[in-house]
Design brief:
Shape: elongated
Number of helices: 9
Largest sheet: none
Order of helices and strands: HHHHHHHHH
Structural class: mainly alpha
Distance between the termini: 55 Å
Number of domains: 3
Strand content: under 5%
Length: 156
């Protein structure tokens, strides 16, 4: 296993600023990266505080861009996006603000598109098995169970 290089504080600050400037980062990602640089926890806390003041790290901005990106590019559902944000220790308030970036009409259209694609790809004759497989597939994509079952039950 390769050992990470240890940086002095000045080098670490420059590297982490570049890391945060490339794309929006949350505090958790930034802290993890700084630990890879071999810095002490108190130094890491100080650097993160400075990064927040200088707007290199902004949890709300991160949550908004994360939600937009995962929805538009990866086509994730809200459950999956929300869980991923929680794993990154984003506050509930920032998560809600980020989730508001997702257009409801576009969201439902994506769900319906995935539903039709999966429904048409299944060869099972048993409709209970088909429904179960479709529901499982859509849940893995991160869509809400109630929306999935409403759509499945509506399409007879």
């Amino acid at each position: 296993m390769q050992k990470n290089k240890t940086y002095n504080i000045k080098e670490a600050i420059e590297k982490i600023k570049h890391y945060c400037a490339i794309q929006d980062r949350c505090q958790w990602e930034t802290e993890r990266k700084l630990k890879e640089y071999g810095l002490d926890d108190d130094v890491i806390d100080s650097i993160i505080g400075d990064l927040i003041l200088e707007k290199y790290v902004d949890e709300q901005r991160f949550a908004e861009s994360f939600c937009r990106g995962k929805f538009r590019i990866k086509r994730w559902g809200k459950v999956k996006i929300k869980n991923e944000l929680k794993n990154r220790n984003i506050s509930e308030n920032c998560i809600n603000i980020g989730m508001s970036q997702i257009d409801e009409t576009e969201y439902i259209n994506n769900l319906e598109k995935f539903y039709k694609k999966k429904r048409d790809s299944l060869k099972d004759k048993n409709h209970f098995t088909r429904k179960g497989k479709i529901a499982k597939h859509l849940q893995q994509k991160g869509f809400e169970s109630n929306l999935i079952w409403d759509l499945i039950n509506k399409d007879k």
